[in-house]
Amino acid sequence: MFQRRLCWMLSSILQQKGDVPRLIFNVAYPANEGNPTTESVCSFFRKEGLNVVEVVFSSRNEFQQRGLIRNKQLEKVNADWVLFADADMVYDPLFFEDIGEKVMTVLKDEEKCISSRRTRLPVDHCCLQFNEKDSREYPCVVNDVASLVNGWPREKKPLSKNCGAGYFQLIHVEKLRARFGNTYIDPKNARDQTLVHLTPSDERFRRMLGGVVGIDAKPQYHLNHERCQEVARQW
After folding, report:
1. CATH 3.30.70.1120 fits 3-230, yes or no
2. How buried is residue 21: exposed, middle or buried, by Cβ count under 10 Å (0-12/13-18/19+)?
3. Is the entire prediction scored with pTM above 0.85?
4. Model confidence over 126-158: pLDDT tens digits?
5. How far apart are CA 220 and CA 93, in angstroms?
6. How far apart are CA 113 and CA 229, in angstroms?
7. How far apart, in whole angstroms, are the C-alpha atoms of residue 113 and residue 126?
8. N or C: which terminus of the chain carries fewer CB neighbours within 10 A?
9. Per-residue pLDDT tens digits for 32-44
10. Longest Cα separation, the chain
């Protein structure tokens, strides 16, 4: 599960600097899973000062359809903009100041899906870190987390050309709702299969909005993880 990586992600949000927009962190998860549980992570970071909203599902099987999960999350969005992101990202300390400035100026009228590239960290290094080396007691705040991961090795393969992956999809909420309501994916058209790492709802969402606008953003780091086909690997 992703709870430890989620602590790193939330630590990086807690450590944002500059003119930071008002951020609401909406996390969807299956109930009572992980070590620590997602419930305990949310409670911990709420006490640290983050505005955390929880969308809880009764079972992991119910949680496999990512597009339907994001439909449920959209119903609870109370913000001008929504950023759909995976739970294993770490952000540069000026990331959200930069994004906030962009949505107030050059992106303020954008109706398409906005996306940006990420820095992928090697899966072997990340898994060794989280599965063996890490001695922290979670949940916890990871100090100076963006600088820490910036010092890790980079994945050797080139950047993906897919600038609209599900880890960063920024949307103007009012414009989305005016056209499609609280819809990430039509339930009749949901075909996500998380167990084989297929999330076609992300691509359909981008097409529904008319495509992707790519932007340059401050660094965002992917704390890479085991894929389903790799779970037999020993760490």
Report:
1. no
2. middle
3. yes
4. 999 988 899 999 999 999 999 999 999 988 765
5. 10
6. 30
7. 29
8. C
9. 999 899 999 999 9
10. 49
